[in-house]
Hints:
alpha/beta, Rossmann fold, 9-stranded mixed sheet, 19 helices, 9 strands, globular
Amino acid sequence: MSISNTIKTIQDIMRQDAGVDGDAQRISQLTWMLFLKIFDDREREYELDSAYQSPIPARLRWRSWAGDEEGITGAELLSFVDGQLFPTLKDQEKMLGNGNPRGRVVHDVFSDAYNYMKNGTLLRQVINRINEIDFTSSKDRHLFNDIYEKILRDLQSAGNAGEYYTPRAVTQFMVDITDPQLGQTVLDPACGTGGFLVCALEHIRKNYVKSHADRRRLQTSIRGIEKKPLPHLLCTTNLILHDIEVPQVIHDNALTRRPYKDYDEADQVDVILTNPPFGGMEEPGVDQNFPQQFQTKETADLFLAMIVKLLKNGGKGAVVLPDGSLFGEGVKTRLKEHLLSTCNLHTIVRLPKGVFNPYTGINTNLLFFTKGEPTREVWYFEHPLPSDRKNYSRTRPLDIKEFDPEKEWWNNRVENEYAWCVTIDEIKARNFNLDIKNPNTVDAAHTDPAVLLEKYRKHQDEIAALRANLRNELEKALK
């Protein structure tokens, strides 16, 4: 049975349990159990080093209570999970008291996790299904992507995924262009399920890791912050599966961790890759963490201010932002002025509609900038839709190969039908409105009326010819 089918079977079992109400709870239930199984499988590898110490008490490790398919079940299993497992893993003193950094990882995952299942027999059935997956096997670890994609689709169906998921091709393109390197610290301050972090990790590992010392150095280079428990759990699990022994993913809101003014050079990083939540509003008081000129309740705006603050001089940023951030006024204008005066916003890639379907239809842009010198000009690249479609969709998403035109143009910049350049003086004259249309394409609304009329006549002639052919075919058929 495939992993996807295994997960479907697990969710079907959960549907029989009166305690699990809806997709969101089923997904939450599944993910904490997968985490413990994956953590235990990885611990079997860590234990090859005799010095390894598990942060989880022996009786609470997955192998001890869940590993035997004939093990405890029914009321005894429920009593154990609700009365011993969760209270201990949620207990900060017990999990953090011995100073084991892995203890914090487990505690943070379980701080907002819950056991929703009320039927211990069904819970045992779910556990036994999970045990069919061997996460020490490179094949099954690779196939975790199937689980991951299914969970994301189910999250979207449950109405919870819009802010978590960035299309894989977009993530890959932003990482390829930004090119994070070994020794650089990479941060996603709104990391969701960890797409950017895993992609950056694999990029560095593939291109720059050559030795065991390099692998150890990479362990502390990838950092994330995520305020919501379910994506935080998924991100942590994903990084563990990608060989990060102690994921540095903070379970918190990056906008409220501390006041903006309290961040200093020690907090700054080399690369920030992120798709901050947009279209949302922060709760009252969050904006008070920021300087008055940046105060707003709009989440994406506050994140942009924070991103600029957290980059080192010479650091690179790559950020997904909606069209509204480009043309908005008020605080948005002040933020753009700040960005352009402290960073070189060298490129904006304008994405077509549908790239983020089915999560959102909002038009989006990819902003690439380097901190430490002001912007003198901004290059725009309008990403073209393939000629065979009018939109992207879940069944026909954006493919990484479609970014080849940008990659070929990137280091040899000339204006063409997709690319154009705007000086900082022009942008200032527009009051920092960055929503600048492609001047190299002709808007049909401004085409010469005589040209439009000729096109219309040709179109009508084509229709008439098609009708005549159809009539002739019908007459032949009737004869």
